[in-house]
């Protein structure tokens, strides 16, 4: 059994279809199918069951999967060690999964600074409002708003951050004053689509005593743009407020939330020095950026 066969096996196990596996490997789907058949014939056992829904691991395939992942990690670590002898900078591709609040308002500037110091580094940011599956290599690392409690994962708290009610000055000037939380009932409130909240830490409505909102989206960026356009009031990340010049906090002394970001990695990847170095720079940069942006908001309100 050679590594090339394992690479195809892993791609199909993660993608669950010949098309997705072929796309990841840059191979024709028919070629992926032939390679898997050859591997199964060589082992004398079926690794996948085929159906209209796609490819699913058999018991034999599930037993092989952790060994294939271990081999992949060892190969990545070996390649990483070889590259390290050629210079001190980071290189290669790293993919980060993140909720879109972090992906839109923190990661761009933090990652840009890291890449400026490491010109050979390529970073991909996947901004999706969901939990990422690191075992399927959807990303090399992920940022979450809660710490997962299961799986072979390494979890590091990055930082706390704050959220407050916010609205554009234009909206506030055109609508009745908001003196307490009860006044929100006379205003258009913006928030998440309730049945698309993927983490209980994002369920802000309960904290406000509201059961529904007038405008809703599963995207933080969409909610923020509604606020910026003067559409209503929303719970907004303090670190996002500087991105909207006309936005100000509402009732900051009455309503405030504190949440946390966590860096989540596959446990086996702790052996990969390149990912360790990148994660250290990422955590350091995110901590500094949250402090900088939140201080900017506080200073604007208390000059």
Automatic annotation (TrEMBL):
<keyword id="KW-0804">Transcription</keyword>
<keyword id="KW-0805">Transcription regulation</keyword>
<dbReference type="InterPro" id="IPR000847">
    <property type="entry name" value="LysR_HTH_N"/>
</dbReference>
<protein>
    <submittedName>
        <fullName>LysR family transcriptional regulator</fullName>
    </submittedName>
</protein>
<comment type="similarity">
    <text>Belongs to the LysR transcriptional regulatory family.</text>
</comment>
<dbReference type="Pfam" id="PF03466">
    <property type="entry name" value="LysR_substrate"/>
</dbReference>
<dbReference type="InterPro" id="IPR005119">
    <property type="entry name" value="LysR_subst-bd"/>
</dbReference>
<dbReference type="InterPro" id="IPR058163">
    <property type="entry name" value="LysR-type_TF_proteobact-type"/>
</dbReference>
<dbReference type="InterPro" id="IPR036390">
    <property type="entry name" value="WH_DNA-bd_sf"/>
</dbReference>
<keyword id="KW-0238">DNA-binding</keyword>
<dbReference type="Pfam" id="PF00126">
    <property type="entry name" value="HTH_1"/>
</dbReference>
<feature type="domain" description="HTH lysR-type">
    <location>
        <begin position="1"/>
        <end position="58"/>
    </location>
</feature>
<dbReference type="InterPro" id="IPR036388">
    <property type="entry name" value="WH-like_DNA-bd_sf"/>
</dbReference>
